[in-house]
Specification:
Two copies of one chain form a homodimer.
Chain A: H1 3-8, E1 31-33, E2 38-40, E3 49-54, E4 56-62, E5 68-75, E6 79-80, E7 91-94, E8 98-103, H2 111-136, H3 139-153, E9 159-161, H4 166-173, H5 177-189, E10 193-194, E11 200-203, H6 206-213
The structure holds a DNA duplex (30 and 30 nucleotides).
DNA sequence: CGGCAATTTGAAGGCGCTCAAAAGTAGTGG
DNA sequence: CCACTACTTTTGAGCGCCTTCAAATTGCCG
């Protein structure tokens, strides 16, 4: 039992689980999840690998006292669910209406592993870059890096629709929701971004964001 | 070019490079590095995978202004150097006298990849657990988790010899060296640990550390 | 329009950082 | 062996960024 497993032994879910699953077919066909629906939970047996067909996913861990760290968001086309153990060490939930293709991979070696290694390494690099953000950047830098990352992963669009709430962004960036909101407001005041909807973000001055992210 | 690559374009090494390499044979034989010696640098062409035979290694990234984030320490028996690109995105340096076995892997698929996937996933899980520490734990919790991790990875020994300086611990945990030192002192005052040497740590009350790490 | 949740904004306080200096450690050479 | 130097670690004081607590505002959906 590792340090972090120990941390989580006393965990209990804070809200009652409501699956909200519209349709879960057998085999490799996509499964549909409503916003907030659980895809898998810590301690569950690993079911394989997951590919986001549409929508978005948050993957996170919890501390015993309820503090949450979202280790990654996964958007359409991305793969997640890599684990070293037979049971999940993380929770995965849909951020919005989401379609997931589940590949049941009992054997993780041979040619299949050869195809998976690049995907796993992609996740590793993302996690390592996120370590730099969490370890050494201030609130403004974190939010700027986050917005640029989200934009890049949606094709570098000028206007993006965030699939997650402020609370999710905070738990991803290691900040309180109030601080996230304050940074958004400050960026809006400086005309670096515009906030047309609650979830929409228009990047007005990309260069300014990039300067801030450093 | 990603956000983080951009961040690092203006990077320059802060100290003059002194290889201090005693012996670097060809092929798969181990290479020896003195304390502080560079194993590879950001931007260099990837040479393959690296296995620590003895000693210890730090892998890190830098921001343009010199802030450093150590993404991982690697001890004897551990493998590192996984990259998605043809060039390194990180720096790797020996923390002390260290022997490294370099496997030159031109093809990262097939059975070889099958053997590598578990190692890569191990790195991924470590990075994700570290995200929880950096994102959601305070200074005391971070140091406690670090000490337990170091102890566990050295066989759960009661007394361990840290191969790294306070500055390295700080850059790993996202803290200043002063804060790391203060937490060490506080743990010593509470008789949770003892500090026989500058680098030595004796874990007197493991349970207390585990309670703190949560 | 009314009600609920999410977001925003404000005020006060705390944790960790920066700056600074003292104490301890190691390495070198006389 | 000891003196000298350079570096690391420790300790102190003050400050600033972010958090917490609280309340106002906005947005959304019936």
């Amino acid at each position: 039992m590792t340090v972090h497993d120990k941390i989580l032994t006393s965990f209990h879910r804070s809200t009652v689980f409501d699956p909200k699953i519209v349709h879960r077919p057998a085999g490799d066909a996509p499964t549909y999840f409503a916003a907030g629906a659980e895809i898998y939970a810590q301690g569950e047996k690993c079911g394989g690998l997951y590919t986001v067909e549409f929508g978005a996913v948050r993957v996170y861990r919890l501390l015993a006292d309820g503090r949450r760290q979202i280790s990654a968001f996964h958007l359409a086309g991305e793969m997640f669910g890599f684990e070293t153990d037979v049971t999940h060490h993380f929770f995965a939930e849909a951020l919005c209406a989401t379609g997931i293709r589940i590949q049941r991979t009992t054997l993780l070696h041979g040619d299949l592993a050869g195809a998976l290694l690049p995907m796993a390494l992609q996740s590793l690099v993302r996690a390592q870059e996120h370590l730099l953000v969490l370890g050494r950047q201030n609130a403004t830098e974190r939010v700027a890096a986050f917005l640029l990352d989200m934009s890049d992963r949606q094709g570098g669009l000028r206007t993006i629709e965030l699939p997650m709430a402020r609370a999710d962004i905070g738990d991803y960036l290691g900040l309180s929701i109030e601080t996230v909101s304050r940074v958004f407001s400050r960026l809006r005041q400086k005309d670096v971004i515009r906030l047309p909807n609650l979830r929409g973000v228009e990047i007005v001055k990309r260069q300014a964001l990039e300067d801030l992210a450093a």
